[in-house]
């Protein structure tokens, strides 16, 4: 059972209703995570704005999805693992092997793998990465701006992981579960 209520988009009012209408128009549905975030329009709007801004960044949608899976695995967020596995496969056209490998911080492309390793280091070290971690991501070919975007993707996904783990959001995608239990 969920711990925080998912709002019915048809019954929502005010800013949350406006945001739900925009999500519905874009996605054809309002996922349960966003319906639950809608209890605070500030939370929902903040999440949407950061996600939209990062979507315009240099990393691209595929790497963003792979980072989301790497972070969700470390935070044992089954909602995000389920959502990003579905989105990664169906919308970003990422093969299932790459989706699975991302959860372990691995990829067949060394540059992508470096980003995933760095993302997992950020999570595991609470953001306190070492000079060696930063040098490794730079040697892989990432600019200071791209490194900042990786940090922002990790932060966005920590937000959604913590939110869904707190809310126990009902999963409305094909269910994927974390290999680790925390």
TrEMBL record:
Source organism superkingdom: Bacteria
Gene Ontology molecular function, alphabetical: peroxiredoxin activity
The keyword Oxidoreductase belongs to this UniProt entry's keyword annotation: yes
Statement: the UniProt record of this protein carries the keyword Oxidoreductase: yes
Residues in the signal sequence: none
Keywords tagged on the record: Oxidoreductase, Peroxidase
Protein name, UniProt field: Uncharacterized peroxidase-related enzyme
Species for this entry: Arenibacter palladensis
NCBIfam families registered for this protein in UniProt: ahpD_dom
Coiled-coil features, chain-numbered ranges: none
């Amino acid at each position: 059972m969920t711990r925080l209520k998912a709002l019915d988009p048809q019954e929502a009012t005010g800013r949350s209703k406006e945001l739900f209408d925009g999500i519905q128009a874009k996605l054809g549905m309002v996922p349960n995570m966003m319906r639950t975030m809608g209890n605070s329009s500030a939370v929902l709007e903040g999440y949407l704005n950061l996600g939209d801004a990062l979507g315009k960044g240099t990393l691209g949608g595929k790497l963003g999805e792979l980072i989301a899976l790497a972070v969700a695995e470390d935070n044992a967020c089954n909602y995000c693992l389920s959502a990003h596995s579905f989105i990664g496969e169906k919308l970003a056209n990422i093969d299932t092997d790459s989706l699975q490998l991302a959860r372990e911080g691995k990829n067949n492309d060394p540059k992508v793998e470096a980003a995933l390793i760095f993302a997992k280091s950020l999570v595991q070290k609470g953001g306190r990465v070492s000079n060696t971690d930063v040098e490794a991501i730079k040697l892989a070919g990432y600019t200071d701006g791209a490194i900042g975007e990786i940090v922002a993707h990790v932060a966005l996904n920590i937000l959604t992981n913590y939110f869904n783990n707190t809310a126990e959001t009902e999963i409305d995608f094909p269910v994927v579960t974390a290999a680790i239990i925390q």
